[in-house]
Amino acid sequence: MTSDSNNSKAELVKCVSSDTLESKGYNRESAIVAVITRTKNRGLFLQRASQSIAKQSFKDFVWIVVNDGGDRSETLDILSSCEVEASKITLVHCVRSNGMEAASNYGITASDSSYIAIHDDDDSWDQEFLQKTVSFMQSSKSSFYSGVVTQTQYVSEELLRGQLVQLSQHSYRPDLANIDLMTMACGNLFPPISFVFSRDVCHELGGFNESLPVLGDWDFNLKFLSLANIAVIQEPLANWHHRDTGQEMPSEYSNSIYTTAALHREFETIVRNSIIRENSQLGPLVAIGQHLASFQQGTFERVESFHNELLTHSLGFEKSIAERISKLEAVLVNTKLSEMTQLNEEKFDQNLCRALIQFGHVDAISEVFDAEQYIHKYGDVEVRIKSGEVSNAFQHFIEIGLSEGRRMFVKANL
Q: 305, 333, 368 — which closes off a domain?
């Protein structure tokens, strides 16, 4: 998109101050579903979120972007150059940061829709997410449910050289099939990116609790369940992105779940207690959930840890190798592999080769693989090629040699 077209689109993007949302003359944007994105000086994430939203096969939505005290011009520039139609976008600008829950409420107030989805700027959707969730909410099953979640992919990533590099992904709570209040009282069962819910129920709840510095989504989910049911679509249509390697990065690009871990633990009890006090009819249920929470949460953490351990061993690499993969991927984005003169056999050990294959980077190995040395070292390889068992030395290494522990040879002229 050219600069001139960007400028013309910027004029079409509706911009409003958060202070004007409650005025009688404010004209709310209307659609079947309102997509709310909370952001603050995270342009890299907002660009990716715009791609996630633009590619949705379901098009009857409005996108409300709440700039929570960040740079207004940068945010508007991104919205002006993204692929979402300008007529669907409203930018709500807050002069000062009011927090995530207030940002959600601003976005909800700025729109008029049957359903609401919170698409945080650092997460993403499968292109069928809105189509399948809205279709469910409009089906006969919706008489029993006022919200629906999809299963979720947990995505581990790093910020390297100004680019987001994916390290791995795995299913988050793959056994999630039902949402019940007792289990929810023990801990949040799903992230905001996977949830589409009824505006009517949200209105009855009074929106999100702006007094909470963390866990506002869990508080909302608990209160939502006190009024209505939430269904589960057992397809992984939402991606929950985490910068979880311990890498140092600008604070605005970190995950709050890690930077405010102690605050999260403190407010877990506060949220449960407030539910009990405010909903006497739910008190016994949530109280039991709170009583079991320490055991259950410990169980969740042990299961999650065990799952991650299995994932690590199944891929055959430790965290240090995962970091090496991410660095290699970052370099691959910006330069040809042949220009990486520092490569040698040590950097392409067996674990790294297995991990690169798992991540779909077979070509990265083939570019540096020295077939001549491999055949010279292992005489049986030439015999297998001539017999037609394998077509070449690289195929032998990938399909046979790696599992047998054979050496990886790197071309000397890189």
A: 305
pLDDT tens figures, 29-50? 899 999 999 999 999 999 999 9
Residue 3's Cα: distance from chain center in Å? 30
Residue whose token pair is 């006090």: 277
Our measurement of the distance from residue 314's CA atom to the centroid of its chain's CA atoms, rounded to an integer in Å, reads 22
Look at residues 62, 66, 57 and name the one whose alpha carbon lies nearest to residue 113: 62
Q: How many angstroms separate the Cα of 168 from the Cα of each of 129, 153, 293, 323?
A: 21, 10, 29, 11
Judge whether 240 and 193 are in contact, CB under 8 Å: yes
Q: How high is the mean pLDDT in each 10-residue block of the chain (414 residues)?
A: 63 86 80 96 94 97 95 93 94 92 95 96 96 96 92 87 80 88 80 97 94 85 92 96 69 54 64 63 49 45 42 42 50 40 49 62 76 89 89 88 80 65
Count CA atoms within 13 Å of residue 215 on its CB side: 23
For the question of whether the overall pTM of this predicted structure is more than 0.85, the answer is no
Task: Give the Cα separation of 46 and 248 in Å (integer).
Answer: 20
Q: Which domain holds residue 137?
A: 3-305
* CA–CA gap between residue 71 and residue 42 (Å, rounded): 9
Is there a domain that residue 315 lies in?
A: no
Question: Could you give the number of structural domains in the chain?
Answer: 2
The answer to whether 286 and 179 have CB atoms below 8 angstroms apart is: no
Token pair belonging to 207: 């929106």
Strands (E), 188-346: 195-198, 230-242
CA distance 29 to 49: 20
Give residue for tokens 């869990």: 218
Determine contact, residues 164/247, Cβ cutoff 8 Å. Answer: no
Cα 205–Cα 45–Cα 303 angle in degrees, nearest 5: 65
Contact 151, 176 (CB under 8 A): yes
Amino acid at site 294: S
Question: 160: domain CATH number?
Answer: 3.90.550.10
Which of 305, 330, 351 terminates a domain? The answer is: 305
Domain co-membership, 341 together with 272: no
Angle between helices 3-12 and 72-81 (to 10 degrees): 110
Rounded to an integer, what is the distance from CA 355 to the centroid of its chain?
A: 22
Residues 193 and 290 in one domain: yes
Spatial contact of 256 and 191, defined as CB atoms under 8 Å apart:
no
